[in-house]
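Suppose you are handed only two things: the residues of a chain and a line of SMILES describing calcium ion. What would the bound structure be? This form records exactly that question and the answer produced for it, so the two can be stored side by side and reused later without any lookup.

QUESTION INPUTS
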Amino acid sequence: MMRHTLIKRELFGTNQCASSPCVNGNCINQGESYQCQCKNGYEGKNCDKMTVNPNYCKNQNWWASFDNKGWSTCNNDKLFITGFYRNTLGSWDKDEIYRLEEAKCCSSNSLYRNQQSECKNANWWDSLDRKNTWSLCPIGYFLNGLYRTGGNNLHNIEEGKCCKPVNHPKRYGHCYHEYIRYKFDKKGWTTCKKTGYYVVGVFRDHNKDWLHDIDYLKCCKMWT
Ligand SMILES: [Ca+2]
Ligand SMILES: [Ca+2]
Ligand SMILES: [Ca+2]
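ANSWER OUTPUT
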């Protein structure tokens, strides 16, 4: 059957799909032309453009970047953090922040799709030095990255990069506190579990000064 079809095409016209023009999709031969059926997340004639659709998320690699002083962010201002991946607990008394290895970066909800972002750096230099204290983005902004200095304690996370779609107001939709006291002691993903929520801040516990001492994420929805 297959063989038959190929021979037929050779005789009666060229196979427009022969060069596999659909980068992320299936090709449909249409005589002189072709059409691509794109996989989810891609668009364009050849399915070569990535759609930043409301459900788009990417795990951003911070494995090396967060080992040293400097910024680790989502690779796009239009993406917002919904959670973190951490490596194995060092020990209760030495759980260095470089064990934070990845951030989950997700697009805005559909209302703000493809809008440019405006960003601000939130000053957490003192707030993360203190126990029982929240370190938060300015109201209406969502976390996009973290800045750390040279030491490896929790208090060495000094700033949050906080972004919002330009037309997003300086307020949030519904917010809640995701309790991660035990979850964040272990290797794996810790996220805002409810869908459509983004991280806007972290809470340092009453205990020590290590990565596992983040006890809560503040998770908020975008305003609709
Ligand atoms: Ca690392
Ligand atoms: Ca500090
Ligand atoms: Ca903990």
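WHAT STANDS OUT: Residues 122 and 160 are 5 Å apart (CA to CA). The pocket of calcium ion (ligand 3) is lined by residues 181, 184-185, 212-213 (CB under 6 Å).
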